[in-house]
Please model this.
Amino acid sequence: MSGSQNKFQIGKLKHQVLLKLLKNFVSNTEIDDNRVIMGSKLGEDAAVIDIGDKYLVAKTDPITFATDAIGYYVVNINVNDIVCTGASPKWFQSTILLPEKKTNAELIETIFRDIHDTCEQMHITVIGGHTEVTSNLDRPIIVGSLLGEVEKEKLVLTSGAEPGNDIILTKGLFIEGVSIIGREKGEFLRKKGYSDEFIDKCKDYLFKPGISIYKEAVLANKNFVIKAMHDPTEGGFATGIAEMALASETGVLIDEKNIKILPEPMELSKVFNLDPLNTISSGSLLIAIEQEFTNELIEFLKKNEIYAEKVGEFKSNKEGLKIKSKQGKIKLLKYSERDEITKIF
Model:
């Protein structure tokens, strides 16, 4: 293997690598197809296509870390990015790759049932896909693809944030990561002396607080003028913030003391030596909104049983990406495309 290949680690490609690939090998939508409103762009998690009176929003995302409840995971992860655009999720497909030596009829039926039931709950139609048993896999992998629709005036983009907008975080950090660890590393935690009650609570983070941001994204966009929304997945909160700022060509100042970290994420951060700000955080929603509406939106979300807090502000691009520590010291916001959870796999 060449030296250049050795530089690539598990997780997302580094932004500088991805930017080069997008520049050299992705269609110039302004020339190739003027119906493409948003194509491939750093920080944008869904494509937007003009289909007449509405926009069609298209998203694809895989599940590679989790194995338990993977069908539920793959639908929700794709739904999260669709609703961040203000769109309603409509049509779901998946490519299901199954490990040759660990696949049985029960596993296949469970995955199909979980995808069906999860889609049905959100009025999404399953329209097909592909399933196969594949060599050299040690766990199932599913690549989901989801289409949605949005009224043109309600479209929200990751790149819509502007200097002076506030940043609101819902629920807290490291939600998906806690669920993955509880489900994939339960025996390890048990040997470390953690109780079944603690492990079960970690597993239940999948549903409570939950990895879905469907409710809060829909409520926010329906009742307020939202400038940008983003679902911080791999790389966690810090990478999600960086992606919003880079896409919007802004700077940012985060106030660390306002970032909510629940007890279970904090405990697991210590056990596995993880930075909670950089650990996979589906279930959290980042919202950019004009400052005059910040308090109103926070109170509205709390009345709908969704915890929300202002955690920062978008600044001019020249100010860069900064975070104010709990001690009041301002420093660079550290982020990595490689998620902290990869340390344990």
